[in-house]
Amino acid sequence: xxxxxxxxxxxxxxxxxxxxxxxxxxxxLHDIGLAAKIVNREVNKAGLVNILGKAGxxxxxxxxVQKLDIYANEKLLESLRNxxxxxxxxxxxxxxxxxxxxxxxxxxxxxxICDPLDGSSNIDVNVSLxxxxxxxxxxxxxxxxxxxxxxxxxGSELVAAGYVLYGTSTLLVFTxxxxxxxxxLDPSIGEFCLSHPNIRIAERGSQYSINQGYYKRFxxxxxxxxxxxxxxxxxxxxxxxxxxxxxxxxLKGGIFLYPGTEDRxxxxxxxxxxxxxxxYLMEQAGGKAIHCTTLEPVTAIQxxxxxxxxxxxxxxxxxxxxxxxxxxx
Length: 329
Ligand code: P6P
Description:
By secondary structure, the chain is α+β, with helices and mostly antiparallel strands. It is built from seven helices and 15 strands. The protein has two domains: 7-196, Fructose-1,6-Bisphosphatase, Chain A, domain 1 (2-Layer Sandwich), CATH 3.30.540.10; 207-328, D-Maltodextrin-Binding Protein, domain 2. Helix 1 (7-13) packs antiparallel against helix 2 (23-44). It is globular, with a radius of gyration of 19 Å. 6-O-phosphono-alpha-D-fructofuranose is lined by residues 118-119, 121, 211, 240-242, 268-269.
């Protein structure tokens, strides 16, 4: 029987792999793991307590906010604020970034970006949800308040990124730029345990993932790509929760697409909080993530706004490159 390797043990043991080998990044990953356990507890009983349903507000991207989104955002902020390991957080649930005061004079070198609860429209129907996060080294002068430039960094500048999937089990999958590893929460000991070491995505898969309901509103070349896969008898799987769809593709191979449409040519998904962290992680697993129109890597896009939206095609390298060929034809 293999020995259990907990998340904390893994991070500590691999600390030498982390850029700048500082305890801060270790501490940040621990903080995110802690927040994930707390959010998991509430997600697992969302049907039992008065935390279901819409909170009656919209977030910065105009999406109706569910109470669990607010709760998840607060828990992440709380966990990151208490340790003072980062100097600021930008979240899909907050209009502007949130500077964090230094704790006991500690000068933090990192900022965190997050989508606290992605796919939250699925809360009421018990479909998997996710938390997405990314960690950057700050660009502004250490010791001062974090600045907008600390968050408007390309995905290629990430020093760590990952997600938590609240599904049939709770999984934390992340990278620090040295490959991708997955940890499953063992509720009996309250620890994330290494369950998916060194994840690599297959060159191709048998599934594609897109909201087929928008077919009529896609670009003609996107329609031709979808028709090609439909005629090739590929399977269509679409959950409406990006973390769940991308996680399935990471493990099974495939391609997830959220192209622009006539009414939303720039696409729906957020560059900072969804596409960059997941794109960076996918690249680390041997996959690819590109903009559906420019075909550039999403991690190469220079962000210009905190809530900027982009289109994305992400997944198996061979399938993303096949999509590229259709878009160039
Ligand atoms: P649509 C959830 O709201 C989300 O941001 C992603 O998790 C998901 O992939 C996408 O939007 C679903 O959007 O337009 O297909 O409902």
